[in-house]
Fold this sequence. Notes:
By secondary structure, the protein is an alpha/beta fold. It has two domains: about 5-115 and about 220-335, D-Maltodextrin-Binding Protein, domain 2 (3-Layer(aba) Sandwich); about 120-215, 3-Layer(aba) Sandwich (D-Maltodextrin-Binding Protein, domain 2), CATH 3.40.190.10. About 45% of the residues lie in helices and about 15% in strands. Strands 1, 2, 3, 4, 5 and 11 form a six-stranded mixed beta sheet that branches. Strands 8-7-9-6-10 form a five-stranded mixed beta sheet, with helices on both faces. Strand 7 (about 140), helix 6 (about 150-160) and strand 8 form a beta-alpha-beta unit. The protein starts with a helix and ends with a helix.
Amino acid sequence: MKKSWRKKLLPFLCLFLLAAASGCEGTKKEGRQKVRLAEVTRSIFYAPLYASIEKGFFQKHGIDVELKTVWGGDKTMTALITGGADIALVGAETSIYVYAQGSEDPVINFAQLTQTDGTFLVSREKMDRFSWEQLKGKTFLGQRKGGMPQMVGEFVLKKNGIDPHKDLNLLQNVDFANIPNAFASGTGDFVQLFEPQASLFELEGIGHIVASFGAESGKVPYTCFMAKSSYMKNNKDIIEKFTAALYEGQKWVYESSAEEVAKAIQPYFEDTELSVIEMVVDRYRSQKTYAENPLLDEEEWKNLQDIMEEAGELPKRIDIGELVDPSFAEKAMKE
């Protein structure tokens, strides 16, 4: 683990140990149990979650979701381990970082939301025939070092014969929120972007989508729902209901039209045109970015650690049984 993660997490470990003994018990409201959910960012990437809320699947299973966007993996994990949230939606790699600190109450992944990377390679110039070789010698505006987007980005570049630190002028000093603005103002020949920004740039003529990092990297537990081991032990029924509701949302997203999905989740993206939301949903569905069920399997877990290891960010290999509990997903899928 890099020092940046150590510095961010260490100040909260004492608070974590104090909070570990007591689960954040769900409170009942009108016969339903409240679950405080912290999401790492607000993104169409998470459409099945928002659909599950808007279509009433959580309420149907007796849960009221109190959703809060925390903006950042370190902040989301801090909210979880210090008792500010019951469940977190964040990259599975964060559970590995916490575990490597020697936690007595590890954070356990129990349901998967996205199963591929959600970023796209955007070129400033239109390319009718793109090849990865065309990146050599160019300025590449990448994502934050140590985060999953950048780790997957480097993994895909190496897979295609590109050494990101030798063959490119790699820029990683721009904050996540400012990357689109930096590219729009003229920085970089290529940029790695999430949706809907990639599609918006294409519509506005600022850039052109030439490749998908998700399609290139294969399946990986990119974003998962996780909770402290103590919370899961004390609130097994909540985790079961939460996972069952999520699975209904995942199925609904794939069984419904892109237009229906876009209309359902539009309240979460009021500043984005419905047609753009629909286009992004269709693109993510076509490459199976949204997990079709909540089960995180061993192959995906291995792929995650391979990507982290390749990037030099893996503290140590951890068996899937240590940080993943598939029983809730398996039960939801059976029922």
